[in-house]
Specification:
The structure holds two protein chains of two kinds.
Chain A: E1 2-3, H1 10-31, H2 37-43, H3 52-72, H4 84-100, H5 105-114, H6 118-141
Helix pairs in contact in A: 2-3, 5-6
Chain B: H1 2-21, H2 26-33, E1 38-39, H3 42-62, H4 83-99, H5 103-111, H6 115-142, H7 146-151
Amino acid sequence: MTIDWIAFTPWWSLIGGILIGIAAALLVLFNGRVAGISGIVAGLLHPRHPDTAWRIAFVLGLVVAPIVYVLLDRAPMIVIDAGYPLLVAAGLLVGIGTRYGAGCTSGHGVCGISRLSPRSIVATIVFIVAGMLTVFVMRYALG
Amino acid sequence: MNKSLFAFAAGLLFGIGLIVSGMANPRKVLGFLDVAGAWDPSLAMVMVGAIAVGLFAFARAGRRSTSLLGAPMQLPTTRDIDRRLIVGSALFGVGWGLVGFCPGPALVALGAGRVKALVFAVAMLAGMIVFEWIERSRGEGRGTSDAERVVAD
């Protein structure tokens, strides 16, 4: 294993992680809700629910974040190397998978582990390992 | 109204955290998942930071029955480690590893005006709708619909 020291940004990643933690804390302490993004988005597929307003507000906050970030600092670094067919396939898998598994990186990886939920710890290990295997297959077995 | 205001603030802060940490950058996410190549372990620090704060917040939340705004405290109650959890998380991990997007960063990149993020997000919503169709068609046989339950998470 070799570490990519040039790309390594431990402090910025830690600071960003703390901001994410504070955001999840705000949502659970003030709204009584878990900041699970796949779940929040999926809830919008049933707009008759009485809690549609806060879900829209949360998603809007996420979408507006890069615009606020530009005003505070500079254009966010977002490099998407994948082509369109792969983006469609990945989107479908993420949509179906996060619903079957009832959570994603935020709901299981951040909030679930913070709740010390064994279920979320297992889910997080499974999706990180699956992601690592996928990158390995795409870059070294097929690439 | 207040609930929406706090939800917006939480979403905004969450999104900025994703950008600052590097999670919103698919190339960096793939660098984290590429343990066989030149590995960039930065994103492990995202979890360290987020969970360090989250542990305190969720411990407090767990002792309350209502939120600070008087809303019911709705924490997940499911505890099963079953096939659904494993298979679902594995499918999600494969999708994540294919392009480096999970749901939050895709919405952030969408806000940054990336057409590729829009394509991913539309496919993701389609995937969620497909899931509900499958659940509904299964549920009709049993007389219960898991889709209703799952949305409550």
